[in-house]
């Protein structure tokens, strides 16, 4: 019994240490955003501001020409929300096809797509840009919303969850005359709701945090997402000139993802239980 307690305490200590490693940079950035430039440039390390100020946030919000942070914020909110909603639709339909619709080569096709997805994403940047350019989507929101809708990771997650739903549900519905779409809409979707919410959240966070792709396909300052805008801010406020405002922008960029994880923890736990939707 004592051995089990020691293992438990060691596990807790490791998790606390890991949490501190992740939290420290975020907290340092948060506190730095409330520091004056003189406070930031002081010799030596200081976690907390000597004098708390909100000037960095006020100056950042007032700059609506070269660094419209509010516009970038709502651009990211629109892009990420739209992307996440479309991912839920595409991924749920794909997972339904891979688990409930029988066709020749179904499993081979899925594992083939899964194997292809193992290649680094950077390999696809040039072909993806060529496709987006040929469709006339460069410098439009479609360029950052549509690519990645059928992410294999999310399809795999939902497929594994959906496979655990008994096929007897489908057979009973078909005996009552239900079509595949009716089964998908009225039976399968309600049962896989927890994992679809998790897939949507993963997609939202991934789209929100995406930096490389938006900087490639978006050039209009007014259309930039907040991550691409942070790169522009680094050029404007970098070189230790306006570090406080740069940290303020980073803090604003973190708000949606932090709130999302705080209020959606229940669904992450439910997604680990493959039987959660089956009552």
From TrEMBL:
Note the topology in the membrane.
Multi-pass membrane protein
- Where is the protein localized? Cell membrane
BP-aspect Gene Ontology terms: transmembrane transport
Residue spans crossing the bilayer: 9-31, 69-96, 108-129, 141-162, 183-205, 240-264
A GO CC annotation given for this chain: plasma membrane
Q: What start-end ranges are recorded for coiled-coil regions in this protein?
A: none
Question: What residue stretches are annotated with the ABC transmembrane type-1 domain?
Answer: 73-264
Keyword field contains Cell membrane: yes
Q: Any keyword Transport? A: yes
PROSITE patterns on file: ABC_TM1 (PS50928)
| Alphabetic keyword roster | Cell membrane, Membrane, Transmembrane, Transmembrane helix, Transport
Q: Which family does it belong to?
A: Belongs to the binding-protein-dependent transport system permease family.
The protein's name in its UniProt record: Carbohydrate ABC transporter membrane protein 2 (CUT1 family)
Q: Which organism is it from?
A: Trichococcus patagoniensis
The organism's lineage is: Bacteria, Bacillati, Bacillota, Bacilli, Lactobacillales
């Amino acid at each position: 019994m004592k051995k089990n307690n020691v293992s438990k305490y060691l596990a807790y200590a490791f998790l606390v240490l890991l949490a501190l490693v992740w939290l420290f940079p975020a907290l340092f950035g948060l506190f730095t955003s409330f520091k004056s430039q003189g406070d930031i440039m002081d010799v030596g390390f200081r976690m907390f501001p000597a004098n708390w100020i909100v000037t960095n946030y006020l100056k950042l919000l007032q700059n609506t020409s070269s660094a419209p942070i509010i516009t970038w914020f709502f651009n990211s909110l629109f892009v990420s929300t739209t992307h996440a909603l479309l991912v839920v639709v595409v991924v749920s339909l794909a997972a339904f096809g891979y688990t409930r619709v029988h066709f020749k080569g179904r499993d081979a096709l899925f594992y083939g797509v899964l194997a292809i997805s193992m290649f680094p994403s950077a390999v696809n940047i040039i072909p993806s840009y060529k496709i987006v350019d040929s469709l006339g989507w460069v410098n439009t929101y479609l360029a950052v919303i549509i690519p990645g809708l059928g992410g294999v990771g999310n399809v795999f997650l939902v497929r594994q969850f959906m496979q655990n739903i008994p096929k007897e549900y489908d057979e009973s519905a078909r005996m009552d005359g239900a079509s595949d779409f009716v089964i998908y809409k009225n039976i399968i979707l309600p049962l896989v709701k927890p994992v679809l919410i998790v897939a949507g959240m993963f997609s939202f966070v991934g789209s929100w945090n995406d930096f490389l792709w938006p900087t490639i396909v978006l050039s209009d300052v007014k259309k930039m997402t907040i991550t691409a805008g942070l790169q522009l801010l680094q050029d404007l406020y970098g070189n230790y000139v306006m570090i406080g405002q740069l940290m303020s922008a980073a803090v604003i960029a973190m708000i949606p993802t932090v709130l999302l994880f705080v209020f959606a923890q229940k669904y992450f736990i439910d997604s680990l239980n493959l039987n959660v939707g089956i009552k």
